[in-house]
Amino acid sequence: MSVNITVLPGDGIGQEIVREALKVLDVLNRGFDLKAEWEEAAIGGDGYDRAGDPYPEETRKLAHASDAVLLGAVGGAKWEGLAKPLRPEAGLLGIRADLGLFANYRPAKVYDQLLEASTLKPEVVQGVDILVVRELVSGVYFGQPRGIVQEGGQRRGINTMSYTESEVERIARTAFAAARLRSNRVCSVDKANVLEVSELWRETVIRIKETEFPDVELTHMYVDNAAMQLIRNPKQFDVMVTGNLFGDILSDEASMLTGSIGMLPSASIGDKYAMYEPIHGSAPDIAGQNKANPLATILSVAMMLRYSLDQAGLADKVEAAVEAVLDDGLRTPDLAGGSKVVSCSGMGDAVCEKLQVMAG
Ligand code: IPM
Ligand code: MG
Asked: Which domain holds residue 68?
């Protein structure tokens, strides 16, 4: 039985990194009988340019009809002047909300091969293996009221951080279930000393633990402290569960433990749909130069194989192939440090070669 993937390269380096990820899928089709089929569609600035909409209707239909979505990145200076609903980011937030992708898994794993690539001391980051579980379709990103209003002689900008109990319950369950497959520890990050929304968040997380996951260890941390602890002693963390904005910020911070934001994949999962994307942006400064690190996207393909396509064995193989090219000393410029510097396509080819060898 074949599987259908909607592929949304998007903007900037999104185009080049997704191309490498598709090469990997191609090798899996030929060497391991995967039977993946895909169709490309537009999102972000690319969606605006081609269809006047950062989340075009055609893309929406395709995504709804597929087994999984693979996304590159969105955004760029070219579209910054547009009205908010037409900007690339509106397309990304649009598809996340439309597909109900409330749970965003962002694993930050430090590879021994890249210890030197981190700006932190090797002994601080060696062995770090954190899973940030970020709530993705609510919180201050989506809360109402929002906007910029006239008030007296000046304007006021407004956003609302809001969570309902059921929104917290489902992300808490996601985090506890994930922890059971790891070392059974969850740290919930909030700002309950100041924000009511965090007070409700914390109470709800505690209730779900006590009633449904009594075996999982739960701790709580204020977000400012969590930001500090992540660089002071990152190995204390296993699963971190947090809201949309805090998760956005902390996952970028966690990526720096690994040496490069170009290494972090993600999975965004809802009740019906799932989307896979690197956590980094469209990097307009290096777009089109064949310099980007495709590994976060290739590792996102591994997550897709594991969580959406029921191919855990192939996911293991893709991850092993990534480790093998790192063992060989291959590095894109974001990771370089006295090793073999390769291009984006060079890195993709190297991963494919490893997979081909495994296929025999
Ligand atoms: C991410 C990105 C997005 C976000 C932007 C591009 C809207 O930073 O996926 O982390 O803030 O969620
Ligand atoms: Mg971000």
From this structure: 1-104+262-360
